[in-house]
From TrEMBL:
Biased composition range(s): Basic residues: 431-442
Renumbered residue ranges of the record's region Disordered: 352-378, 416-455
Protein species of origin: Oryza brachyantha
Keywords from the UniProt entry: Cytoplasm, GTP-binding, Hydrolase, Nucleotide-binding
Protein name, per record: CP-type G domain-containing protein
Taxonomic superkingdom: Eukaryota
InterPro entries noted in UniProt: G_CP_dom, GNL1-like, GTP-bd, GTP-bd_ortho_bundle_sf, P-loop_NTPase
A molecular-function term among this protein's GO annotations: GTPase activity
Domain CP-type G, chain residue ranges per copy: 42-250
Location of the protein in the cell: Cytoplasm
Any one Pfam family match given in the protein's UniProt record, by short name: MMR_HSR1
Length: 472
């Protein structure tokens, strides 16, 4: 088809797809997260999928399922049934070994091709630096399921997976050619394989490309949306990498605040900061936040659960108080504090991670997360989303007492300490009480003999001076 026909078909299909999403929102009463609506960005994705033999979806190791898009894997299979999708779990050095083992078991159970990888650690290795804040002691583990691959190992693995896919396609094509023409069947294998990188913004695609190439070839920034067009990078005669711009895919499961907290939407452009901070407060334990920022969060009230997470207002005000962030009006500068907390959350200063959906046993999770090294990671491991047996007993007693407290509060006025039943309810007064006005002083008026009702103006005339009486 011509270029004009291709453009018209793509626009027609894209418009129909957006109409179907809008119809789902309206009819099914679903809330759809913000997603990319520029067709030019989607065209970059389509071209990368068409060119690639192996599709690599880069995800964040701290919450892989949030960044994974199963619909994209299905779409790749529709283009070519032999095309496979590999889940490159970036920032895997932020996870302890036992958590990586849990995710490895989950991926194998669901038949997901995956690899653990750290672009930041690979870049530091190329520059001859050592990461002090990241735990890399398990990088050279003999277990291939939980191993964090290095640069050379990842390139070999990617090339091997892509060549396997190409060999399958060539074998199928050769069989079809033999059926059609048994005598003249010559299959020409391509000289190189293409590996495409896709995923959400700010998951480390550009950093991964730079680490694999060995030099800075793509711009890297914490603000999502740096890469605008896909680019092809030649690694060797047999391997070519293709980098796609970060795309925000539509989703019904997450919220806008979660997308801001995960770095998918720009932090500097957020308008409601408390929602994203509440996501952080719900995921990170209270003790971890207090130890990292050296702050003291308000304790829960007697009628509240002792294990409840802090509210966004409590966290922001405590942070502003400790750092001295004050706005022009003299109030705590919560916007500045929220941006800094979210950036620390994304950079890994605040340790956190999610477990696979099947892992719900808190006691087993507590035992397995005690092997973290470092002061911050130890606190995170021993306090993330779990409580000991003694705490469970205390919470149970607190829940029993809460019922009595709430029943007492219904008939007790906290402000005056008097029962509501004994007090009379005052009816609101709707009368407008005006301030009494003073009578106007009209003594300056004089009588008017003309009887026309108009006021008379007094005329003051200076007395005449008799010069003869004045003596020098």
């Amino acid at each position: 088809m011509t270029v004009e026909e291709l453009d018209a078909n793509e626009r027609r299909a894209f418009l129909e797809w957006r109409r179907n999403l809008a119809r789902l929102e309206e009819n099914e009463k679903l809330v759809l997260t913000p997603f990319e609506k520029n067709i030019d960005i989607w065209r970059q994705l389509w071209r990368v999928l068409e060119r690639s033999d192996l599709l690599v979806m880069v995800v964040d190791a701290r919450d892989p399922l949030f960044y994974r898009c199963p619909d994209l894997e299905v779409y790749a299979q529709e283009i070519d049934e032999h095309k496979r999708t590999l889940l490159l779990v970036n920032k895997a050095d932020l996870l302890p070994l036992n958590i990586r083992q849990r995710w490895a078991e989950y991926f194998k159970q669901h038949d997901i091709l995956y690899l653990f990888w750290s672009a930041k650690a690979a870049t530091a290795d190329l520059e001859g630096k050592k990461l002090s804040s990241y735990s890399m002691e398990d990088q050279n583990t003999p277990d291939l399921d939980t191993k964090i691959y290095g640069r050379d190992e990842l390139l070999v693995r990617l090339q091997g997976e892509a060549e396997y896919i190409v060999d399958q396609k060539e074998a199928l094509r050769a069989r079809e050619d033999r059926k059609s023409s048994p005598t003249d069947s010559v299959s020409i294998r391509p000289k190189h394989v293409v590996v495409g990188f896709v995923g959400y913004p700010n998951v480390g695609k550009s950093s991964t490309i730079n680490a694999l190439v060995g030099q800075k070839r793509t711009g890297v920034t914490s603000t999502p949306g740096k890469t605008k067009h896909f680019q092809t990078l030649v690694i060797s005669e047999e391997l070519i990498l293709c980098d796609c711009p970060g795309l925000v895919f539509p989703s019904f499961s997450s919220s806008r605040h979660e997308m801001v907290a995960c770095g998918v939407l720009p932090i500097d452009r957020m308008t409601k900061h408390r929602g994203a901070i509440q996501v952080v407060a719900n995921r990170v334990p209270r003790s971890v936040l207090e130890q990292i920022y050296k702050i003291t969060l308000p304790k829960p009230k007697e009628y509240e659960q002792p294990s409840r997470p802090p509210t966004a207002a409590e966290l922001l005000r405590a942070y502003c108080t400790s750092r001295g962030h004050v706005s022009h009006a003299g109030l705590p500068d919560e916007t500045r504090a929220a941006r800094q907390i979210l950036k620390d959350y994304l950079d890994g200063k605040i340790p956190h991670f999610e477990l696979p959906p099947s892992d719900t046993d808190s006691e087993t999770y507590l035992e397995e997360t005690t092997g973290l090294e470092g002061s911050d990671t130890e606190v995170a491991a021993t306090t993330v989303h779990c409580a000991s047996d003694e705490q469970d007993e205390e919470i149970g007693q607190a829940d029993a007492n809460i019922g009595h407290l709430l029943s007492d509060l219904e008939s007790f006025n906290l402000g005056s300490g008097v029962s509501k039943k004994s007090t009379k309810k005052k009816e609101p007064s709707y009368k407008h009480h005006k301030k009494p006005q003073r009578k106007k002083d009209r003594s300056w008026r004089v009588g008017n003999d003309g009887a026309d009702g108009s006021g008379v103006v007094r005329v003051f005339q200076k007395p005449a001076v008799n010069l003869a009486t004045v003596t020098c």
